[in-house]
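ugh ok fine here u go
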Amino acid sequence: MVHIGTVVISAIKAATGLVGGGKFLFLPTFLGALLYYNYDLYDPENRPINERNLYKEYDFIVIGGGSAGAVVANRLTEVPEWNTLLLEAGGHETELTDVPVLSLYLHGSKFDWKYKTQPQSTACGAMIDRRCRWTRGKVIGGSSVLNTMLYVRGNRRDYDNWAAMGNYGWDYESVLPYFKKSEDQRNPYLAKDTRHHATGGYLTVQDSPWNTPLGPAFLQAGEEMGYDIRDINGEKQTGYAFYQFTMRRGYRCSTAKAFLNPIRLRRNLHTALWSHVTRILIDPATKRAYGVEFIRDGKKQTVLAKREVILSAGAINSPQLLMLSGVGPALHLAEKGIPVIHDSPGVGQNLMDHIAVGGLVFLLDQPISLVIGRIFNIHASIRYAVLGDGPLTSSVGLETVAFITTKYGNVTDDWPDIEFMLTSSSTVSDGGTQCKKAHGLRQDFYDEYLGDITNRDVFGVFPMILRPKSRGYLKLRSKNPLQYPLLYHNYLTDPDDVRVLREGVKAGIALAETEAMKRFGARFHDRPVPGCKKFTLWTDDYWDCVIRQYTMTIYHMSGTAKMGPETDPGAVVDSQLRVYGVQGLRVIDASIMPVITSGNINAPVIMIGEKGADMIKGYWRGVDYAAAENRKRRRRRRRRALAAKYNFQAPTRPARFDARLRNETGC
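structure:
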């Protein structure tokens, strides 16, 4: 057992490296209390074991230990006869990654791939060099370690639409059991709805232990505007609700904690951390995936797969690895000097993301919001460490969610086109430091538009478009696997996306005019947005400009290895998630989404992991069963032949027959 003092010291060093000193001088006390009261949780021996001595061959190799990969590794190793290797480019989680309010401080850290998009004129005008920052998790647990833990399944029509596109078995009724399979719903009122929720799964889902007075006020405002308060993961989606979180007793419940920590001692699971996969090995003659190459400790290594390679590296890394391995658009691969195994034009295309409008800030007259400088203190730290409660359990102020339909949608369909992320904080709530950095905002933009309200009591409304029509793409920079791909977001290239977001902005401003919000003195921060002053304030042209200036990614990259029928020229995988043109290779992550779901996508990605693992089990158990039956048939034929040869009675009891045969003939 590792001595607790050693763990405390290493935790403090990690914290200092992550967020620096200065105003975080409370951290030693905080981490000391955290580890004292939760040592069983933070004991390094309870984390996934980083296996140093790997086999030469495994039944399955899973690339990526993120939101889907962790699920797949867990479910495959439920079969004791199958050996599985999980390869993850990053390392372990730390004590600070568990603290919900610190999630933005993980952006740009060692846990982040730190991707940036290529400059484009259509969006992200307020960002440095017009480049959006795409945070992706480089850590066991993937982006579930860096995200805001929002558990949103999407709309039933999303999945029915997938099925209508030719992806049979992906309709809502077919995927609902896989959402429930993972879920351990801790809200007893929601858990009563056994049609839509379940308890006892690996993934803990709960309400936030702590809210500001703004949380219930948002709900009241929604009622004033004619919306119902509902379970947005239940029968209907339209309406207002408190967010549900992948949180356990106030701590982050990543997929590593949920799906990997409990099975760390399974003998048929090997986890290799800090292992950067560079290529999937595919036989060019048989077109079968038979292993992977990866770099670990600065050395290139190879490991073989007896049955399948499963690609769960995410919507950026999965298509990148496919192309590096010779599966992708033939002309592009030829340009980069990569031998083409299979021409798959859809690899890296169909890139989707949810975007929101930043900068909708509303000032308050009362000290009731989440101001970072006010909540970081010893009292809050001890409360969090001992009780798993208090302001440090806040997911950067995200408290309430609303799903609404603009005039461009059909209200009767219960298929909203805008999600409001309603927060008791905003970009200015941390003193203009980490949030600005995470969003990649230029300093001059921040100073002119938000500088004078820094650290003030505010709330934020972030209108997010749910089904964007714009599609981006990615391509290789070179055939060097260590070079990042070129990312083109293509945000707002479809004018319908601008129109829907514009209506979302107007509805967000109207929310602040309700009596529920006015009682706190709510008023819109109406300073003209830099870059948009040439337009008349509050006109459609002005709002269109604002949308293109402060364009916020919600980090929901998806669709770059699209699932679809064989008749779809852009499809990369079939409805069983098998890569077209290559045997023994599947993609199981957000890449396979043919159309992005209506809401935050972590829950759907976990569902994809569950369903994908079941597909693999079903296929190989069938193969194993067939092989076993073939072996039995061969043994029966052999017994009959030997019985005839040695004039024995036909075998009715094989074991007794085999024993007699050995005794009398030596066979």
